[in-house]
Amino acid sequence: MTVAVGVTGATGRMGREVLAAAGQRGDCEIAFAVSESADAGTTVEGYEVEPAGELEDLVADREPDAVVDFTVPEATAGYAAACGEAGVSFVTGTTGLGADEITALDRASDAIPVLHAPNFSRGVSVLVEVVREAVGSLPGYDVELAETHHNGKRDAPSGTAERLLETIEAEGDFSGRKHGREGDDPRVEGEIGVHALRAGAIAGEHEVLLADDHEELRLTHRAADRGVFAAGALDAAVWLADREPGRYEFADVLG
Ligand SMILES: NC(=O)C1=CN([C@@H]2O[C@H](COP(=O)(O)OP(=O)(O)OC[C@H]3O[C@@H](n4cnc5c(N)ncnc54)[C@H](OP(=O)(O)O)[C@@H]3O)[C@@H](O)[C@H]2O)C=CC1
Ligand SMILES: O=C(O)C1=N[C@H](C(=O)O)C[C@H](O)C1
């Protein structure tokens, strides 16, 4: 079966990557591509990019099996609602979602399958589980998290860092998060240090450091490029296309 995919944010870093990846696969085809500021004649990877304001019409006309979204939180909430109305599965990797946007995903999931993942890399899925085990096995160790991304990233800490922090907090007895460190600011027992670096074109790095007075353990994931996220998102779209309505995780796709 070939899954027809609509792509939002088509002119963005991830949208371009999703369109490029789709062209290399036999299990999906592009139904349409949209972007907020697309002008007439804009093309990406050979696909015509249409104005995002026309999403409802495009979903009705082209009848995709799924929409893949990497945009901004305020757009993601509206796209989820439009897909819910049209009965089209919705996959989103947009990070920095607030309570209202999460509620929009939940509402849409009454009508359609919705999968939101802060990271579509298989390696990060494993990292989350390894961090869970490490924190649970090393009670009392200091924990610090650092994430590094390109200079165009909007949200901090990254969505992946948020997922790792939730995992760490669920597994141990911590007093709170400490974002950055400056001046006369020694470490307080039980805090989780959080550091966000932004530079150049770095696709995405996450490191969790656990240490006591005698040893240190560093658990690190590095994305070599964005292709890994695009591949995971398309895997999710193919998997999600014929599911029942509800909320799904990337881990469900990986089985
Ligand atoms: N889950 C994962 O594995 C990954 C998640 N991400 C997340 O994906 C998101 C996008 O990242 P990235 O591609 O780097 O971002 P970019 O800034 O490169 O692209 C954003 C896209 O969103 C569009 N956009 C911006 N504002 C609006 C709006 N108000 N309505 C509709 N569309 C809009 C832009 O359109 P235009 O250019 O026309 O303005 C652009 O196409 C981020 O939240 C990022 O954290 C990124 C990588 C992996
Ligand atoms: O904005 C990005 O680039 C990335 N965002 C995701 C996040 O916020 O965790 C995933 C990946 O690290 C790249």
Tally the structural domains: 2
Alpha-beta classification: alpha/beta
CATH homologous superfamily grouping of the largest domain:
NAD(P)-binding Rossmann-like Domain
One letter per element, helices H and strands E, the order comes to EHEEEHEHEHEHEHEEEEHEH
Major sheet size, sense and barrel closure: 8 strands, mixed
CATH fold naming of the largest domain: Rossmann fold
The overall average pLDDT, rounded, is 97
Q: Which second-level CATH architecture of the largest domain applies?
A: 3-Layer(aba) Sandwich
Low-confidence stretches: none
- Order of strands side by side in the largest beta sheet? 3-4-2-1-5-6-7-13
Produce a short descriptive summary:
The chain is of the alpha/beta class and 255 residues long. It has helices at residues 13-22, 55-62, 73-86, 99-108, 122-137, 159-171, 227-240, 250-254, and strands at 3-7, 28-35, 43-44, 47-51, 66-69, 89-92, 113-116, 142-149, 176-179, 191-198, 205-211, 216-222, 246-248. A hairpin with a 4-residue loop joins strand 11 (205-211) and strand 12.
